UniProtKB/TrEMBL annotation:
Protein name per its UniProtKB record: Glutamine-dependent NAD(+) synthetase
Family: Belongs to the NAD synthetase family. In the C-terminal section; belongs to the NAD synthetase family.
Residues bound to deamido-NAD(+): N385, E414, K525
Coiled-coil boundaries: none
One Pfam match: CN_hydrolase
Cell inner membrane keyword on record: no
Species lineage: Bacteria, Bacillati, Cyanobacteriota, Cyanophyceae, Oculatellales
Pathway: Cofactor biosynthesis; NAD(+) biosynthesis; NAD(+) from deamido-NAD(+) (L-Gln route): step 1/1
Annotated organism of origin: Pegethrix bostrychoides GSE-TBD4-15B
Function: Catalyzes the ATP-dependent amidation of deamido-NAD to form NAD. Uses L-glutamine as a nitrogen source.
Length: 569
């Protein structure tokens, strides 16, 4: 039996478009004599639909669109489609109104539904908000074979792999007990760095544990802050990888199931990008899909001559083409000569358009307006941030005038400690590198320059980073060196370590306490930042749910510390 995985890039809520993607994949698969076609989780509506699921009309439209799709599909093919369906017993017996389901379409009809058993409620996942868990793990018969169906999280509960069971139910064990021939999984598994290695290790262990081959179909594309990498795979009974679809691209992958050996046969294995190449591919896809799905054709950003804006400009050019990117240079009296020259050299290397808008006269106008009110105070934080807010207003004005998407250029290190200006450099519709620590920004830029045609000017890579909001300013006037800062942030934000545990790894206690205080104090800024593309396990996005008005601090951090705060707010 020939089986195919349609690795699709759906648009959330665009039911007709998503149905057309499924139909086109089925028609292509039909030319290869495919008998069974898999699509990703919630492939008809796109994942994650979030509170669209609370709109009855949206659920009803899905219910009407599904049988239409069944009638349009090649009749000789069985197709599994992800869909949210109503829970008929919710009104009488209680429970959530919907199931996260897979529909089996065959012979022009909707033949069977399978419901997701395990509903994740961690990080960006909130399945329990909408869905009732399925009550049984089930299979369907196709050409004499028993094919068990699971959906995404149903795979992530193998006690042999995790060392514990995260849920009371184990769908894989239940299907294995029913002596199925093959287990398939429809997933919408968001990307994070190196996650594919984890998935493949987990699936290899599961096939060995239960003695069942597994086919895993994953969504691809960007939806808001989430990026889906695809990388759909198949493993045979021995835990060997037999096929892998392209990473970060739509794909149609086929594999043979041998009914005699009751196993998957080796097929094509697409290469998996590693390290910086993987992050680059994810971010380019995230920018490209955010723009396309939100209706933008052109991007713009502020070009400061610094490392962050250089990387964002390169990402934008790769995502939508250099001819569709506009860089705005806004030098002030405090800007160094190299800020302009470095930015122009970068723009020339990338082939993007530029416009120079000096802000010196605007700064003078603000000084005059504030002269009486500020007369008894010294130049300080307010005046520094006015410069950033002037730039932010100019950028938003251009964005409004021409309909370009403004991409903000702040990195994760700055966002974590609040070294950024509300209504200034934080302005924008997308924060492309908001989950990228500063040290990784440098690593990615150096990786970009490793080829035959380096695009990041060398001086941008070697000069000290600076906001240039006052004479001689550099970031390290306000922050620890970025290699130290990023290590502390990783331990505190991602690994949830206490101050004492971080100090035990070699950091000074005063520095650790200061950084943690900065992270806590900056929460109000993060709540007002544009959506940031998620590439790590712990991003400041939909999975970060910290309160703003909170007085809790980790033990050993003083309640009212007398520490210097970053000079941007």
């Amino acid at each position: 039996m020939k089986i195919a995985i349609a690795q699709l890039n759906p648009t959330i809520g665009n039911l007709d478009h998503n149905a057309e993607l499924i139909l086109a994949a089925a028609q292509q698969a039909a030319t290869q004599n495919v008998r069974l076609l898999l699509t990703p989780e919630l492939s008809l509506c796109g994942y994650p639909p979030r509170d669209l699921l609370m709109q009855p009309a949206f659920v009803e439209q899905m219910a009407r669109r599904l049988p239409q799709l069944a009638q349009d599909l090649p009749p000789q093919m069985a197709v599994l489609v992800g869909i949210a369906v109503s829970n008929p017993t919710a009104a009488q017996l209680g429970g959530k109104p919907l199931f996260n389901s897979t529909a089996l379409l065959q012979n022009g009809q909707v033949e069977q539904f399978f419901h997701k058993r395990l509903l994740p409620t961690y990080d960006v996942f909130d399945d329990n908000r909408y869905f009732e868990p399925g009550s049984a793990s089930e299979y369907f018969m196709l050409d004499g074979l028993r094919i068990g169906v699971t959906i995404c999280e149903d795979l992530w509960n193998d006690a042999n792999f995790w060392g514990k069971r995260n849920y009371a139910v184990d769908p894989l064990a239940e299907l294995a007990a029913q002596n199925v021939d093959l287990i398939i999984n429809l997933s919408g598994s968001p990307y994070s760095f190196a996650k594919q290695q984890l998935r493949e290790s987990m699936l290899a262990q599961a096939t060995q544990t239960y003695g069942q081959p597994i086919l895993y179909s994953n969504q691809v594309g960007g939806n808001d802050d989430l990026i889906f990498d695809g990388s759909s795979v198949g493993f045979n009974r021995q835990g060997e990888l037999v096929c892998r679809a392209q990473a970060f691209e739509s794909d149609l992958m086929t594999v043979e199931f041998d009914p005699i050996s009751r196993d998957l046969q080796p097929s094509s294995i697409a290469p998996q990008p590693q390290d910086n190449a993987e992050i680059w591919a994810a971010l380019v896809l995230g920018v490209k899909d955010y723009m396309r799905k939100c209706g933008f054709s052109k991007a713009m950003l502020g070009l400061s001559g610094g490392i962050d804006s250089a990387l964002v400009a390169a990402l934008a050019a790769a995502a939508v083409g250099a001819e569709n990117v506009l860089g705005i240079l806004m030098p002030s009296p405090y800007s160094s000569d190299h800020s302009v020259s470095d930015a122009l050299e970068l723009a020339q290397n990338l082939g993007i358009q530029t416009q120079i808008l000096p802000i010196g006269e605007l700064m003078q106008s603000y000084d005059q307006s504030f002269a009486e009110l500020f007369q008894d105070s010294e130049f300080g934080l307010a005046e520094e941030n006015i410069q950033s807010r002037i730039r932010g207003s100019l950028l938003m004005g251009i964005s409004n005038k021409f309909g370009h998407l403004l991409i903000s250029t702040g990195n994760k290190s700055e966002l974590a400690v609040g070294y950024c200006t509300l209504y200034g450099d934080m302005n924008g519709g997308l924060a492309a590198i908001a989950d990228l620590p500063k040290t990784r920004v440098y690593a990615l830029c150096r990786w970009l320059n490793a080829g035959d045609n380096p695009v990041i000017p060398e001086h941008i890579l070697t000069k000290p980073p600076s906001a240039e909001l006052k004479p001689g300013q550099v970031d390290q006037d306000s922050l620890p060196p970025y290699d130290l800062l990023d290590d502390i942030l990783c331990q505190f934000v991602t690994q949830h370590r206490s101050p004492a545990e971080i100090v035990a790894t070699g950091h000074e206690a005063a520095t650790v306490e200061r950084v943690i205080m900065l992270v806590t104090r900056a929460e109000f800024k993060r709540k007002q930042s544009p959506p940031g593309l998620k590439i790590t396990d712990r991003a400041f996005g939909t999975g970060w749910r910290m309160p703003i008005a909170s007085r809790w601090l980790p033990s050993s951090v003083p309640a009212s510390p007398k520490i210097a705060l970053p000079t941007r707010s």
